[in-house]
Each structure stands twice: as structure tokens, then as C-alpha cells.
């Protein structure tokens, strides 16, 4: 007989889990402490790089996150090299969020791996779940865009400012709007 999964194991695998679990609360508290330090110190690579190393699963060389920056746990976020996140980005990382090399992300972008069950009974039981978000290399995401749970954005894609990305975006594609779609051709 297999031992029952912990709430953290359920969360990381995308299953329904209880976010009120004491271990998860402690993990979020740890991330909040590091984020407070990060967001309240002058932006210098000397001070910020070590804080990101403590907070994130991976932060490639030359990556920059301008404060303020917000996330749930941090340990589910993997940044490639040369990634740039502008001011006021929010990454809800209950499961993995991966961002490829040289991707540029505008201010106030929100990336949600966190999701909620569609069943009203499960929501009443305070259960949550997540779906991984993957963003390729050399992607440009305009300010204020929102990337929803489970979305994959291919290499070299462009996401227009203010777009809400509800579906996967193929490599090299530009999408805009709500929901984000390829713009109509101009003749």
C-alpha cells in the first residue's frame, strides 16, 4: 500500500490540495520574507542575485527581476539566462513556471499556474490545484498581459500588452486581445 501523498506533493503534481496545510503556509511565509527583503532593498545585483538564488528554483545568469515582484512559493519558478521581468510582475507558482532564455516580460504581467476546481463542492472544501506554465526562449510579453494556468508559449512568440492568454501560443506567433488571438491580417 502506498502512503498517502502530502498536500505539497499533491500541489506540485497538479492534483487538488488544501492550501491551508501548515507546511504550505510555512513555505509561503518563507517566500514572503524573502520577497519583502527583495522588494525593500535598492536594486543592485550584489543584493538581489543572492535573494533570487534563495527564492527561485533556478535563475540563469544575467536574469533581472525589477522589484516589486510577487510569487507564492518561488521554488517552482525556473528562469533561463538573460530573462527580464519588469516592475510589478506576479507569478502564482503552485506548480512549475518555466521561462526560457532571453525572454522579456513587461510591467504588471501576471502568470498563473494556480487554478481552482470547476466543481462548486471542491471549491467549498477550499481545495485548489495548478497547471504548469511554460514560456519559451526569446518571447516578448507586453505589459499587463495575463497568462492563464496550463498555457505553453513557444519560442520567439509575442504577446501583446493587456492580452489574456487562455490557450497555447505556437512558436513565432503574435497574439493580442482578450482572449489572445492572432491579429487579423492587414491588406
TrEMBL record:
Residue intervals of the Maltose/galactoside acetyltransferase domain: 8-61
Pfam families: Hexapep, Mac
This protein's UniProt keywords: Acyltransferase, Repeat, Transferase
Annotated GO CC locations: cytosol
MF annotations from Gene Ontology: acetyltransferase activity; O-acyltransferase activity
Keyword Acetylation: no
Family: Belongs to the transferase hexapeptide repeat family.
Function field: Acetyltransferase implicated in the O-acetylation of Nod factors.
Protein name from the UniProt record: Nodulation protein L
Gene: nodL
